[in-house]
Q: What sequence folds into this?
């Protein structure tokens, strides 16, 4: 902190105070307002706060918050403080706030909004940029995510950093392919609907057991030193270890393998990092088990079609009832036509309850997939109607926050 210019130090102090006021008044965790006040006073605050630190940026449509948490846990294995925006405030103000709150941390792991990645790379000169996946989110359509990938590609071509990227997502492979140094991870891709076309030439991509390649141009899946293989990670030396995570599902195993590759770039071995990853059991309220009216409620967030596919993979096996809750506020996207992109047939035979502002849209969608369901008024009604000791909840963004508020959780 002592190295910061006076103006930046002042901006951090005032920003921190604004954040504390925001927290005390119960308006959130204060990260965004604190950072925003600081940035108003010193527009270069992020650059100044990042200077001299080893920074990891994490971006992608899904898994950013969890992967940020896992990488942070792995780097903490070095025994030092790690700055991080653990609660997903992932635009400039949230990043500045995370760094301002940990002035002495030499390492920082920062979840970064997809659209801000080029600006944040420019401001923070990261050591590592982590690219997870790109698929449609809310109102985005294929052309928009291609534009995002192209901006990443340009920014990474100009940057001096190591990129750790998922080779199984063709858009990610294309964006990372221009970087000077890339470590490829076979992290898998369950959602293919946004990557049928070659990002380089527009031709149809071909897929087989070996991955994907363009039928027309040389663009092809790169070889991967790190591999997620079922429940195991295969490291660059070919050693196989079981992941044994507390976090559920294939998507989180994929995030963990990416985190191990990032840790390796900091000289942290799999044997050092893995126990730290195994300790992580809940991320910003997700996957949390909460007791409510004698029922064990488990919360899953799904913001877009690929996220719903991941959430279905995580559902408790058997016939545990599941509550689906969908809103269409601005942070969710006003358009719910994406509901038609999700295959709900996996829910057949399981008790399904439907809530949220757009429950009727979802009801129509479920009928089309011949999934039986019951309409309910929120969480408590769902618990009463489910009549089970367990309930899985899948909700999109504001519906998730609403349920957390009902449960009295704000952080
Ligand atoms: Zn091509």
A:
């Amino acid at each position: 902190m002592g190295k910061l210019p006076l103006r930046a130090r002042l901006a951090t102090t005032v920003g921190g105070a604004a954040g504390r006021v925001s927290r005390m008044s119960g308006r959130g965790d204060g990260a965004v307002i604190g950072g925003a006040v600081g940035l108003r006073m010193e527009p270069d605050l992020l650059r100044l706060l990042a200077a001299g630190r080893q920074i990891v940026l994490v971006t992608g449509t899904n898994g950013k918050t969890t992967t940020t948490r896992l990488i942070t846990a792995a780097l903490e294995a070095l025994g030092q403080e790690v700055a991080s925006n653990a609660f997903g405030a992932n635009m400039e103000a949230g990043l500045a706030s995370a760094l301002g709150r940990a002035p002495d941390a030499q390492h920082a792991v920062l979840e970064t909004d997809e659209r801000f990645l080029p600006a944040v790379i420019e401001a923070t000169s990261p050591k590592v940029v982590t690219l997870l996946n790109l698929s449609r989110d809310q109102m985005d359509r294929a052309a928009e995510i291609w534009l995002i990938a192209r901006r990443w590609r340009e920014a990474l071509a100009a940057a001096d950093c190591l990129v750790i990227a998922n080779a199984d997502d063709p858009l990610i492979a294309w964006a990372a392919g221009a970087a000077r140094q890339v470590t490829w991870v076979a992290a898998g891709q369950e959602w293919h609907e946004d990557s049928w076309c070659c990002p380089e030439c527009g031709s149809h991509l071909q897929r087989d057991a070996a991955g994907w390649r363009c039928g027309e141009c040389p663009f092809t899946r790169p070889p991967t030193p790190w591999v997620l293989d079922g429940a195991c990670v295969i490291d660059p030396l070919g050693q196989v270890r079981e992941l044994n995570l507390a976090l559920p599902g294939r998507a989180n195993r994929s995030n963990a393998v990416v985190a191990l590759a990032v840790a390796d770039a900091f000289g942290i071995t799999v044997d050092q990092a893995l126990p730290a990853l195994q300790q992580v059991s809940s991320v910003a309220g997700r996957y949390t088990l909460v007791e409510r009216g004698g029922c064990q409620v488990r919360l899953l967030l799904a913001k877009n079609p690929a996220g719903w596919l991941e959430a279905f993979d995580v559902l408790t096996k058997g016939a545990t009832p599941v509550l689906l809750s969908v809103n269409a506020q601005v942070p969710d996207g006003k358009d719910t036509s994406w509901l038609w992109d999700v295959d709900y047939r996996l829910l057949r035979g399981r008790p399904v309850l439907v809530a949220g502002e757009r429950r009727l849209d979802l009801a129509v969608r479920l009928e089309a997939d011949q999934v039986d369901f019951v309409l309910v008024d929120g969480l408590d009604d769902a618990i009463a109607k489910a009549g089970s000791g367990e309930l899985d909840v899948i909700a999109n963004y504001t519906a998730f926050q609403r349920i957390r508020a009902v449960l009295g959780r704000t952080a």
